[in-house]
């Protein structure tokens, strides 16, 4: 069982006072807080080891190169991938943009179709729109059911020989429900369709196993996983990565260069041109070490307790609508209370030191599907407590009383 | 109708709202003030009248009558609508040049600028900017 008090001591920011009250940080889907272990690793990287990686003959460069590759190895183990299948990126958004650009020069061509679910974040929509526009392909929409879930039968009906790729989140940043990725990849692969999974919201909360999911690509961000900002991961199956053309040239990604042509390095270096964010990679490794030291099983068990409490407590508020149903979910709750404006609720919660997010959550098509313009979103992490949920519910009741 | 000058209304609002004993009372007063204004009819809630940069929808309509600027505004969020009602109380019916020169000190004095979140503060700034731009255009034409 997670010793939450001990865990919270690792996150100094959780002790912040806001308007004289103890901070209740329920905005973890936007970014997660960092434990001292991650901050110490970053500090040590600059204090003791800093040097540009690879290409260096000297001691420090050698040490830092080793740490960078150790980080890759750690990420690979964390998601059950091979080392050479893990590319470091700046984050989920950059990972998707890079992949879309690569695929637009290879797998996706004129007349082809990219399938996107209706619940996607803008960052899993716009890069594909740009890629499709470039090559003359088009977007097709995988609709969701009224409860927010994906229908596997519906997916099979919509797939045809033109659909080259499905891009879908494992967990929507609005709905919090876990999509059945394994069944989805199975249906897609039977049709010869590649699957890219946006794991930005799922990797921090679930045990991620790319072999079991059998997805072709997976992207996620470090900062939502308690690491620094500006670091992320693009996983790709090795045989696929080897076929993809790099879209960004520069140092570190080449084999031989003349003034008119170049041959490229092997994967993953081929996709990591320029000086990579090696300190970011170290912070990600430290965050993974930290989560592993707590144990993913214990994290999941604690978040289950939080989920149960959130569902029960929100359900007690009169006139509340929680978007996204389903037994298997991450602690992400989007809701509205009768006709009250989410922004009003968020502002009043802020006065009580409670941090939530309001608005359309970069998912305007999903908002349109739900027939709303926005929601309040409370997103929790393993360091949150049942007591904080109680404070949050008190805050909501206070907000309702002021606004009505 | 005799118009009080901007500085006087500004001071009156500060005096009135400084009576709030805490944040919740202040918010209740602001929301109540928003409920008291007429707002905008649906046909005036247009793209053209919309103020960008706000997290809630804000619409603003201005016109000139007998050398005075008529301002109506609305928002779908209660707190925003309340703040709009206070801005209008000061500026609606004033001369464009006076509006351009207005400082709106009450926003700082009752703590609306410093204590509201930056996104809200940005929205507030775009509303005031929009009103002043409109006043400037009235002076120039």
Q: Which descriptors would you attach to this protein?
A:
heterodimer, A: 404 residues, alpha/beta, Aspartate Aminotransferase, domain 1, Aspartate Aminotransferase, domain 2, 2 domains, 7-stranded mixed β-sheet, 17 strands, 40% helix, globular, B: 141 residues, mainly alpha, Sufe protein. Chain: A, 2 strands
Write the layout of secondary structure elements.
The complex is a heterodimer of chains A (404) and B (141).
Chain A: H1 4-9, E1 17-18, E2 21-22, E3 24-25, H2 36-49, H3 59-78, E4 86-89, H4 92-104, E5 113-117, H5 126-135, E6 138-142, H6 152-158, E7 163-169, H7 181-190, E8 194-198, H8 210-213, E9 217-221, E10 232-236, H9 238-243, E11 254-257, E12 262-264, H10 278-294, H11 296-315, E13 320-323, E14 332-337, H12 342-351, E15 354-355, E16 357-359, H13 364-370, E17 375-379, H14 386-403
Parallel strand pairs in A: 3-15, 5-6, 5-7, 7-8, 8-9
Antiparallel strand pairs in A: 1-2, 4-10, 9-10, 11-12, 13-14, 14-17, 16-17
Chain B: H1 6-17, H2 23-36, E1 58-65, E2 68-75, H3 78-91, H4 96-101, H5 106-109, H6 112-115, H7 118-140
Antiparallel strand pairs in B: 1-2
Helix pairs in contact in B: 1-3, 2-3, 3-7
Give an overview in words:
The complex is a heterodimer of chains A (404) and B (141). By secondary structure, chain A is an alpha/beta fold. Chain A folds into two domains: 4-30 and 295-403, Alpha-Beta Complex (Aspartate Aminotransferase, domain 1); 39-292, Type I PLP-dependent aspartate aminotransferase-like (Major domain) (Aspartate Aminotransferase, domain 2, 3-Layer(aba) Sandwich), CATH 3.40.640. Helices cover 40% and strands 17% of the residues of chain A. In chain A, the strands form five sheets. Chain A has a seven-stranded mixed β-sheet with strand order 4-10-9-8-7-5-6, with helices on both faces. Chain A has a four-stranded antiparallel β-sheet with strand order 13-14-17-16, with helices on one face. A two-stranded antiparallel ribbon of chain A has the order 1-2. In chain A, strand 13 and strand 14 form a beta hairpin. In chain A, helix 12 (342-351) crosses helix 14. The longest helix of chain A has 20 residues, at 59-78. Chain A is globular. The two termini of chain A are 41 Å apart. The mean pLDDT of chain A is 96. Chain B has 141 residues and is mainly α. Chain B has one domain (6-140): Sufe protein. Chain: A (Alpha-Beta Complex), CATH 3.90.1010.10. Chain B is 55% helix and 11% strand. Chain B has seven helices and two strands. Chain B has helices at 6-17, 23-36, 78-91, 96-101, 106-109, 112-115, 118-140, and strands at residues 58-65, 68-75. Chain B has a two-stranded antiparallel ribbon with strand order 1-2. In chain B, a hairpin with a 2-residue loop joins strand 1 and strand 2 (68-75). In chain B, helix 2 crosses helix 3. Chain B is globular and about 45 Å long. The mean pLDDT of chain B is 88. The chains are: A alpha/beta (404), B mainly alpha (141).
């Amino acid at each position: 069982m997670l010793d939450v008090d001990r865990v919270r001591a690792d996150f100094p920011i959780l002790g912040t006072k806001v308007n004289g009250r103890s901070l209740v940080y329920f905005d973890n889907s936007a970014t997660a807080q960092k434990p001292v272990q991650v901050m110490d690793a970053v500090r040590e990287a600059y204090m003791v080891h800093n040097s540009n990686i690879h290409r260096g003959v000297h001691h420090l460069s050698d040490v830092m190169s080793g740490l960078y590759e150790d980080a890759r190895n750690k990420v690979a183990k964390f998601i059950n991938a091979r080392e050479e299948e893990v590319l470091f990126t700046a984050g989920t958004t950059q990972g998707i943009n890079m992949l879309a650009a690569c695929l637009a020069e290879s797998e996706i061509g004129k007349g082809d179709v990219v399938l996107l679910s209706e619940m996607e974040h803008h960052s899993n929509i716009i890069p594909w729109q740009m890629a499709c526009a470039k090559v003359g392909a088009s977007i097709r929409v995988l609709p969701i059911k009224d409860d927010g879930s994906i229908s596997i039968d519906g997916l099979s009906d919509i797939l045809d020989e033109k659909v080259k790729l499905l891009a879908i989140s494992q967990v929507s940043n609005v709905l919090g429900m876990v999509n059945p990725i394994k069944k989805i990849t199975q249906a897609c692969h039977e049709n010869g369709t590649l699957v890219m999974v946006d794991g930005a919201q799922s990797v921090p909360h679930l045990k991620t196993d790319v072999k079991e999911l059998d997805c072709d690509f997976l992207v996620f961000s470090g900062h939502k996983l308690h690491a620094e900002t500006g670091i992320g991961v693009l996983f790709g199956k090795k045989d696929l990565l080897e076929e993809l053309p790099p879209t960004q040239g520069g140092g570190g990604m080449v084999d031989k260069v003349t003034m008119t042509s170049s041959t490229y390095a092997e994967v993953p270096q081929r996709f990591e041109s320029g000086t990579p964010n090696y300190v970011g990679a170290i912070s990600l490794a430290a965050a993974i070490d930290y989560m592993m030291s707590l144990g993913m099983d214990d994290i999941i068990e604690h978040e289950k307790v939080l989920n149960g409490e959130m569902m029960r407590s929100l359900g007690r508020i009169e006139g509340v609508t929680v978007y996204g149903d389903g037994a298997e979910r991450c602690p992400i709750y989007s809701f509205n209370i009768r006709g009250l404006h989410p922004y009003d609720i968020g502002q009043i919660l802020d006065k009580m030191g409670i941090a939530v997010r309001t608005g359309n959550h970069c998912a305007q098509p999903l908002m349109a599907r739900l027939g709303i313009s926005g929601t309040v979103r409370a997103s929790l992490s393993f360091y949150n407590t049942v007591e904080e949920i109680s404070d949050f519910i008190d805050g909501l009741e206070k907000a309702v009383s002021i606004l009505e | 109708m005799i118009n009080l000058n901007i500085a006087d209304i500004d001071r009156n609002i500060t005096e009135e709202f400084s009576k709030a004993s805490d944040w919740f009372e202040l918010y209740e007063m602001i929301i109540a003030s928003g409920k008291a204004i007429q707002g905008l009819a649906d046909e005036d809630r247009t793209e053209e009248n919309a103020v960008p940069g706000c997290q809630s929808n804000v619409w603003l309509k201005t016109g000139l009558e007998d050398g005075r600027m008529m301002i109506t505004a609305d928002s779908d969020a209660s707190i925003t609508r309340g703040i709009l009602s206070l801005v209008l109380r000061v500026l609606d019916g004033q001369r464009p040049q006076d509006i351009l020169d207005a400082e709106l000190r009450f926003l700082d004095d009752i703590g609306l600028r410093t204590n509201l979140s930056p996104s809200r503060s940005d929205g507030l700034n775009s509303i005031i900017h929009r009103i002043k731009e409109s006043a400037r255009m009235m002076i120039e034409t």
